[in-house]
Amino acid sequence: MERLTKRHGKGIASNERKVMPCSNYCDSCGNADCDTVRKMIRKLADYEDLEEKGLLVRLPCQLGRTLYVFDVLTGLVEAKLKEYNRVPYFGDNMIFEINGENVAFPLTDIGKSVFFTRREAEEKIKEMEEL
């Protein structure tokens, strides 16, 4: 993604230096150089820094959502997405709570053994049984 901010020393500036009243962005003072706009730019710069370092991740769904996990030992179970973590050398994992226990699945399991709906899961199980 193209950065919308740039850092210079301890300061941060927008890549596009346009003079606009801050009322275009907030309900503050109407001044082009107010604290609210500075805070917005600072926060955006922080997110852009995280993204450049590979630390900003878009999850496939909200935490707390119920997904359906198929395991050959336990079959199809409902699981709550509890957290997300990145393990060096092992990649991105979703941590589910299943029957009170935490179970990790890699993000790459979505559509293979982790499904957003029961219907998707049942269709995949049926497809696997036909093989």
Characteristic terms for this protein:
alpha+beta, SH3 type barrels, five-stranded antiparallel beta sheet, two-stranded antiparallel ribbon, 2 helices, 24% helix
List the helices and strands and how they pair.
Elements: E1 5-8, E2 11-14, H1 35-52, E3 66-71, E4 75-87, E5 91-98, E6 101-106, E7 114-115, H2 118-130
Antiparallel strand pairs: 1-2, 3-4, 3-7, 4-5, 5-6
Describe this structure as you would to a colleague.
- 8% of the residues are buried.
- The chain is 24% helix and 33% strand.
- The chain has two domains: 5-52, no CATH class; 66-130, SH3 type barrels (Roll), CATH 2.30.30.
- Strand 4 (75-87) and strand 5 form a beta hairpin.
- The model has no long low-confidence stretch (mean pLDDT 78).
- The protein is elongated, with a radius of gyration of 22 Å.
- The two termini are 42 Å apart.
- It has helices spanning 35-52, 118-130, and strands at 5-8, 11-14, 66-71, 75-87, 91-98, 101-106, 114-115.
- The strands form two sheets. Strands 6-5-4-3-7 form a five-stranded antiparallel β-sheet, with helices on one face. The protein has a two-stranded antiparallel sheet with strand order 1-2.
